[in-house]
Amino acid sequence: xxxxxxxxxxxxxxxxxxxxxxxxxxxxxxxxxxxxxxxxxxxxxxxxxxxxxxxxxxxxxxxxxxxxxxxxxxxxxxxxxxxxxxxxxxxxxxxxxxxxxxxxxxxxxxxxxxxxxxxxxxxxxxxxxxxxxxxxxxxxxxxxxxxxxxxxxxxxxxxxxxxxxxxxxxxxxxxxxxxxxxxxxxxxxxxxxxxxxxxxxxxxxxxxxxxxxxxxxxxxxxxxxxxxxxxxxxxxxxxxxxxxxxxxxxxxxxxxxxxxxxxxxxxxxxxxxxxxxxxxxxxxxxxxxxxxxxxxxxxxxxxxxxxxxxxxxxxxxxxxxxxxxxxxxxxxxxxxxxxxxxxxxxx
Amino acid sequence: xxxxxxxxxxxxxxxxxxxxxxxxxxxxxxxxxxxxxxxxxxxxxxxxxxxxxxxxxxxxxxxxxxxxxxxxxxxxxxxxxxxxxxxxxxxxxxxxxxxxxxxxxxxxxxxxxxxxxxxxxxxxxxxxxxxxxxxxxxxxxxxxxxxxxxxxxxxxxxxxxxxxxxxxxxxxxxxxxxxxxxxxxxxxxxxxxxxxxxxxxxxxxxxxxxxxxxxxxxxxxxxxxxxxxxxxxxxxxxxxxxxxxxxxxxxxxxxxxxxxxxxxxxxxxxxxxxxxxxxxxxxxxxxxxxxxxxxxxxx
Lengths: 347, 299
Known about the structure:
Shape of chain B: globular
Distance between the termini of chain A: 15 Å
Strand content of chain A: under 5%
Oligomer: heterodimer
Largest sheet of chain B: 2 strands, antiparallel
């Protein structure tokens, strides 16, 4: 029985999983995910799809903000570029989605490269303000490049087909989304065991020290933007296929703030945290809706105040986590886990 | 005078009037930043709060203006205290991302509470000034714009006197200048932090009242205007009060001119995006703005 974290070899230190328990857990989760579409209602499938998309987007943002320390308020713009690139490639160029989404990821990565240029000169607060401005400029571009984006009216996205099977139901889109969530998660988890990932963390912890150690700030900061926006591109492409219609309002500044809240509530610098945060932020409005439904008997106006209740609960959740649990849900999870790991011999 | 010149003058005058309100918002933003190095990412919600509370006290409660205004300002001061004491003080010394996000959180709560209390319909704002335009030379000017600009000037003059001569104002300047020295001279830095938030909520509230009467109604799109604070403070310099005031007017004029001249060419919406383009250019060329302290760290 294990009663502490002992590492006696470098191999052991580099391992992702200390024990067999998390592997069993992951296999169980995957097994449940595989059968979910046969049992869940359309409503819950839709929620799960949105969670899946949010996980990919949140991992992308966390790589940039949580691991590399480059604050970005422009994530919604990345998602928008991914979604529009996917839609335009499929509509105008007639590409199938399995080419359109990777291409969209590449386009978004290129866009992220441009977005990241200010980070070479600015950091912290100034970078945050620069990305905020970039968000508005990108949104302006999307709204006014009407020939491609159809302006505020938005675009209808054609149904994707795989081997002749149209992905026209939530259950089928579910498999598409989770077929991408799983590799995206594992790629990110492994990224931080490589030179690149370590360089990101070094830049976050002390950029000058990282530079002195031979980490090229220029290269790795831009690389962080590229990887992060490629994730956002995939998430945006999936959004296009999930909601079938995309319009500029779906990528407002509030979306960027939601994603930032996801990684803060979930846990900055934690892949597991992205998953928790995505689940939390997606379920929050749904739980409020369920609450409102049960309250309509007592208080008929309950549905009318959902939007504002969401804002209030969201705001307080962010404030609460920042004040009392800055490392987020992932930290709570680690505490619970280590309690059980050492039980009954804690201390 | 040619039609062109009149058109341009009109754009400039409207721009100055709107820019005055930006100056007010930027003043609140800069004060908070100078005193406590906190960046408020929800300046629009403070403006919204002021506009809604003043609307509520004047119209539904039917209070006369001289009663409604002090009540509104009192509520604004209370809000400033609650935000500073409750949320930002515990986060002193935390990473920038935490402080940024917490101000987003506060803004979200304010928006939610306002929405829950008064709903999201546009509320007609009481008409404080006559709508009849008068002529300043050949240029028609609406009294609302003139009065809002006069109001802003009076407020800014009042705040300058407050900062220059009152003991509290001097304490605030001292803290902004050097926190440790101020503290060792007996200035209560905690009080200054709280005060700077109160001043910020008060000026934002006044900005909200002015914007409400300029537009003739309040709704949630007012909050989007608050984000114009960022181009203003970056142009003027993040820690410069004078920069905030001049930057506000400059950005107001700039967005109006760009809207007036480029909208027909580029097809609308230039007004909203031009300030942010300027922001990026300034950040790349001169990140400390026109009057800010040159201490930005390059990496």
